[in-house]
Amino acid sequence: MKKISIVGIGPGGLDEMTPKARRAIESAEVIAGYNTYIKLVGEIIGGKKIIGRAMMQEVERAQLAIQEALSGRNVAVISSGDAGVYGMAGLVLEMILDLPEKNRPQFEIIAGISAVNAAAAILGAPLMHDFAIISLSDLMTPWELIKKRVYSAAEADFVIALYNPKSKRRINQIIEVQQILLQFRKKNTPVGIVTNAGRENQKKIISTLENFTQEDINMFSLVIIGNSQTFIKENFIITPRGYSI
Amino acid sequence: MKKISIVGIGPGGLDEMTPKARRAIESAEVIAGYNTYIKLVGEIIGGKKIIGRAMMQEVERAQLAIQEALSGRNVAVISSGDAGVYGMAGLVLEMILDLPEKNRPQFEIIAGISAVNAAAAILGAPLMHDFAIISLSDLMTPWELIKKRVYSAAEADFVIALYNPKSKRRINQIIEVQQILLQFRKKNTPVGIVTNAGRENQKKIISTLENFTQEDINMFSLVIIGNSQTFIKENFIITPRGYSI
Q1: Which of A75, A83, A189, A211 could form a Cys-Cys staple with A30, CB 3.0–4.6 A?
Q2: Across the interface, which of B124, B142, B243 has its CB nearest the CB of A145?
Q3: How far apart are CA A124 and CA A129, in angstroms?
């Protein structure tokens, strides 16, 4: 019985993957993950068995990964960013702990640079004060709860980072979010959009709360909305650490 | 004129520092940062000039770092975790952009594994759903605003991560936070505490909302409080991605 590593590969390039994550991938015989992520680490997975069919459900992929480990192979389950943030860590860990203790593979969770941290470094320093991370995907979360979180985060002046802000199918939610935020924050509140952070075709947009929904936003974008103290300086967004009081 | 790199070194060990961050430190002639952080990267900074006196204020350290770069030396300003999360990124970036464009050093911000991501990987998978990051340090933020954020995050069922939860001087705030949270969440809500994540003397505690304030918490601890769906399984905390609705 071998080990299963649940690995956050960071934004994409090997240059932003930790040595610990890289070692886990290199020493694995089987790699499980979305095709997109598999391609990102293509350089270091030559010859390994891949569990990554595009249409495969996450539960099925996790099951296959665990079976591979139980069959005596080292397995790395990879997520982009941090596997513990909207990634595979929770599902795989739960499935492993559901097995009787004597039938479990060894396992470890390896943190990666999360998408929000990668995007923030590109935008400047927007996360220097308290912030809230919200996914706008309503596949597994009721939209009313997501809206409530946006309200609460807006009211308490959190910097807000939006994961999964928009997809081809889901285009109105970001507008609703904007309308909520405009009840609490000025129209010129800084908003940063980073698409494909740390990857080919990386794109950075500095905008405002009033205008950002007109920008190019897709499922590879991360959106960061400033708090009441955040300012734009040239092509950067900065949230000061202290509050002017 | 040389480059100033604002570097997140990750939780501590070289094994969780990205190649990009390591290269910036290795190629710098001058390193600026707290003594604690300087020690963490001691292996790779032999012979370099250090700007890191313990009592030095952050503004003074940033000024000296920028002066060094303007004098023709490569400089790395280091923060543990991610420099963009309660670190040095905002201050240094603002000071650089305040200089006339022709008198500026080149600069870059390099993301690191943030403390919350490192702690989460140790605890299991507590951050799999929307979460709020709140620092309990009231040095530069009014305590009333911090409490308001705790209220809002509690009410909207965010997983909550607390930075700077407690220090020798500041011991009551965490109790107030607990009291607020108990108005919204069950007594047995999972709470994880990781002290010295990724460093020597790493300590992991799995507790509950009712009991966690009695645990050993200090300025090197990060506290993660689950949402209404979070559960403890053996010695791990898991927040499911989906909501049971």
Answers
A1: A75
A2: B243
A3: 13
